[in-house]
Write a structure and sequence with these properties.
Elements: E1 2-5, H1 15-24, H2 38-57, E2 62-67, E3 78-83, H3 85-93, H4 97-108, H5 134-146, H6 157-161, H7 164-171
Antiparallel strand pairs: 1-3, 2-3
Helix pairs in contact: 2-7, 4-5
């Protein structure tokens, strides 16, 4: 098993944060905001997002953790998951290498204020996929879904409509 990230815009000032806020600030809401463990709500949300992402793109993933930065000025929340090397091999065989190469160049080329610790070409990465770390596998998954990715927001739309977010909040209220 390898660790990976998945495409996720995080919670800070995104539609994911709005999804939670929408429930909290609904005119009919009776939830005491001060009693909510927002960390646990975000973890529940991240697990559900990963599950929906996994099903949508038919990628077997197992939730590992939600990582949130101390400050949001350089990065955002990231969802980490476990993936089998066999699945990584299947994904790379179904990913346009030009799309992957372009994404690698975009993400890992040095620029003002950013020095990459990764080569900015697929052909300089290890040929053995089991040696790729979470950023490399995550980039592969991003290139794979970029070919058919519609809208990240749509993945959680059902959670808003069926009361799932309310349940996440209720379950994590002290």
């Amino acid at each position: 098993m390898q660790t990976t990230t998945i495409p996720f815009s995080g919670f800070y000032q995104t539609h994911h944060e709005f999804n939670i806020d929408y429930v909290l600030y609904d005119d009919e809401s009776t939830i005491d905001i001060d009693s909510i463990d927002f960390g646990k709500v975000r973890i529940a949300y991240a697990k559900e997002y990963l599950d929906k992402f996994s099903k949508e793109y038919e990628i077997e993933l197992k939730y590992e953790e939600l990582s949130s930065p101390k400050f949001y000025n350089y990065s955002t929340d990231r969802i980490f998951a476990k993936i089998s090397t066999k699945t990584v091999n299947e994904i790379i065989s179904n990913t346009d290498s030009d799309v992957l190469e372009s994404l690698i160049a975009e993400k890992f080329t040095n620029r003002s204020g950013f020095v990459s610790f990764y080569p900015n070409s697929l052909y300089k990465w290890p040929t053995e996929l089991s040696k790729w770390d979470h950023n490399q596998v995550g980039t592969l998954i991003e290139a794979y879904v970029d070919m058919s990715y519609d809208d990240e927001q749509e993945l959680m739309e059902y959670a808003i409509c069926n009361g799932m977010i309310e349940e996440m909040i209720d379950t994590n209220t002290i």
